[in-house]
Amino acid sequence: MSDVSLPVSYRTLEAPVHVEWVEKKSRFLCALFPAATEHAVQQQLALLRKQYWDATHHCSAFRLKDGTERAHDDGEPAGTAGRPMLHVLQQHDLVDVCAVVTRYFGGTLLGAGGLVRAYSHSVVRAIEAATLLSIAPHDLYHLTLDYSQYDFALHRLREAGWEVAASFTDRVTLTVIAPTAVRETAIPMLTSLAQSPVPIVPVQTELRALHVTK
């Protein structure tokens, strides 16, 4: 377990994913699902144990954004299942996510190295099939422009990759959403575009979810 809190920005899972594959006659079924609390993890694990009641092992690993991490080998040799699964979640920087790999033993021993590879690969396959989200704080700004400034401002804002919406009256009012991480760049840029005598500062900050491009 880790007690180090994770930053506000994080990556997580949009929806549950299930994958299945076979290695030397052993079936590996990986369930990867969102889980924001240990209670949610235990609830889902109980459901999987009930669904696959006749399986040999139900190994698990999870990470929460408060820094909590757990790994469980469920009868496999120590360090050959849960810990490798957790390592994959760490490598992909995923939190509020749990992986459970259910194994039906096929009669052939895989050895310690084979088990590590099989359990790791199960989680990798699930992540590859999943839709991932990047959660990060974003700032919302309002600025008012003359029509003569609009085209240039819109070009600059889109070039920066920020979200822009416009409303039109006697002047143009822009609503701009930009990552909080670029605030030190955004404020002077927006202030300049608006030709404002005072800095254009965020009116609110909120967490937004964006799909991760693989």
CA-to-CA gap between the ends?
A: 29 Å
The residue-averaged pLDDT reads: 92
Query: Strand share of the residues?
Result: 35-45%
Q: How many domains in all?
A: 2
Q: What name does CATH use for the topology of the largest domain?
A: Ribosomal Protein S5, domain 2
> Which CATH class of the largest domain applies here?
Alpha Beta
CATH architecture of the largest domain: 2-Layer Sandwich
Unreliable sequence segments: 1-7
Structural class of the secondary elements? alpha+beta
Topology, number of strands: 10
**Share in helix:** 25-40%
Largest sheet: 5 strands, antiparallel
Give helix and strand order, one letter per element, not per position: EEEHEEHEHEHEEHE
Number of helices: 5
What sort of overall outline do the alpha carbons produce when their principal axes are compared?
Answer: elongated
Family: Belongs to the IMPACT family.
Domain Impact N-terminal: 24-126
Organism: Sulfoacidibacillus thermotolerans (Acidibacillus sulfuroxidans)
Protein name: Impact N-terminal domain-containing protein
